[in-house]
Amino acid sequence: MKRITIRDVAKQADVSIGTASRVINGAPNVEAAYRTRVLAAIKQLGFVPNRAAQEVRKGRSREIGIIVRDITTPVLASFVRAAQDLFEEAGYGLLICSSDNRKDRELELLRRFRQRRIEGLITTTSSEVDADLAQARNDLDFPVLMFDREVDGTHDIVQVDHASGVNQAVTYLLSLGHRRILLLTGPVNIYPARARVEGYKRAFAAQKLDLDPTLVRTVGFDAATGFRETAVALERANRPSAIIAGGIDMLPGVLKAIRATHLHVPSDISVIGGADSDLALLADPAISVLRWDFTQIGATCARMLLERIEAPGTEPRRLAFAPELVVRDSCAAVALVPTQKRESRRK
Questions:
Q1: Contact 245, 271 (CB under 8 A)
Q2: Which long-range contacts (CB under 8 A, 24 or more apart) does 34-39 make?
Q3: Residue 227 and residue 222: Cα distance in Å, rounded?
Q4: HTH lacI-type domain: which residues (predicted)?
Q5: Which letter does DSSP use for residue 287 in this model?
Q6: What is the rounded distance in angstroms from the CA atom of residue 202 to the CA atom of residue 166?
Q7: Facing residues of 185 across strands?
Q8: Which domains does the chain carry?
Q9: What is the helix, strand, coil percentage profile of the chain, to 5?
Q10: Long-range own/partner contacts, residues 171-176 (CB < 8 A, 24 or more apart)
């Protein structure tokens, strides 16, 4: 089937190509009779304008960017998909990139997005305090929404309330008699790690209990770090009785290390994952987790960015999502084995 072009529309309407183009692009300086004929020709021929080309001519790309640490992280798929659905409904394409948590790659991605003249960006960052990264973001001429990061007040921010989540997890473990609770998370120059440590300390303080600072490990968020830190901790004479995997990628490494040391969950050690996943649900026993709705967060990020594109001069906004503690079968009272399976939610 022949592709209908603007030349065909002009011929059908008996107008010049320039007149047809002005009608298609919404120009006001077109006589009503010509506009009526062009619109009728468009309908008769089933012509579909090339919106991408129109926006390029207007200096707009109709593209949105997303930068995440690792696009292979399964739980981020629902976040990206929800954002993509809203952007597509609004007529925007989506460019998704992974920074690998590297400053050089993040700077390069910001440079490329600026060259492409995208219209908005949802991003994390490898460092909240790095001056080069901050300058690169501030130099962008399109709106930026920061996801799960804490930066200056010039950008909209959507976060997970990790402090509240870890506070729930630690409080629950303390109620089971645990005192040596290992928290594994990333460097504290990043908001999620810093907030988790805050929630951990807050829970001990609320119970007027002393905590062992050597049980707070702020090294990295990945599975390899989870394995190394867990293996080292479990080899100690005074090993932890419970572990909180404070990162969405850490749980596989933690469970692998527990298996390698021939310990069992939960009879030897209790475990709480830092985010829900198929692994947490299908493991035997099923792993208790801190859970939040990535689909809802992705849609919220997209909606806020679209609103920012339409109203760039409004005050920056901040929104936080509260996690829930989902109790499954991976936690037990100290020296006790759970006798029945369960799943409950604590908010």
A1: yes
A2: 37/13, 38/9, 38/10, 38/13
A3: 9
A4: 4-58
A5: P
A6: 9
A7: 218
A8: 6-49 (1.10.260.40), 63-160+294-321 (3.40.50.2300), 162-291+325-346 (3.40.50.2300)
A9: 45, 15, 40
A10: 171/203, 171/206, 171/207, 172/272, 172/325, 172/327, 172/331, 172/346, 173/242, 173/244, 173/270, 173/272, 173/331, 174/203, 174/204, 174/207, 174/209, 176/242, 176/270, 176/331, 176/332, 176/333, 176/334
- CA 40/CA 14 separation, integer angstroms: 11
* pLDDT at residue 344 is higher than 60: no
Distance, in Å, from the CA atom of 302 to the CA atom of 199, rounded to the nearest integer, reads 28
Angle, CA of 30, 31 and 32, to the nearest 5°: 115
Q: What is the pLDDT of residues 253-308, one digit of tens each?
A: 999 999 999 999 999 999 999 999 999 999 999 999 999 999 999 999 999 999 99
SS3 assignment, position 133: helix
Place of tokens 């790659």: 105
Q: In which band, very low, low, confident or very high, does the pLDDT at 6 lie, cut at 50, 70 and 90?
A: confident
Rounded to an integer, what distance in angstroms lies between the CA atom of residue 18 and that of residue 205? 73
**Phi, psi for 90 (deg, rounded to 5):** -85, 0
CB 144 within 8 A of CB 155: yes
> How many Cβ atoms are within 10 Å of 105's Cβ, its own excluded?
15
Q: What is the pLDDT of residues 194-240, one digit of tens each?
A: 999 999 999 999 999 999 999 999 999 999 999 999 999 999 999 99
Type of residue found at 278: D
**Could you give the CA distance from residue 7 to residue 42 in angstroms, rounded to a whole number?**
11
Beta bridge partner(s), residue 160:
321
pTM for the full model? Answer: 0.79
Other Cβ atoms less than 10 A from the Cβ of 262: the count is 8
- Please give the full DSSP string across 3-28, using - where no structure is assigned: PP-HHHHHHHHTS-HHHHHHHHTT-S
Strand order from edge to edge, sheet including 181-185: 216-218, 181-185, 242-245, 270-273, 288-291, 324-327, 344-346
**CA-to-CA dists, residue 194 to 172, 184, 189, 216, 284, angstroms:** 20, 12, 7, 11, 31
Tokens of 275: 């985010």
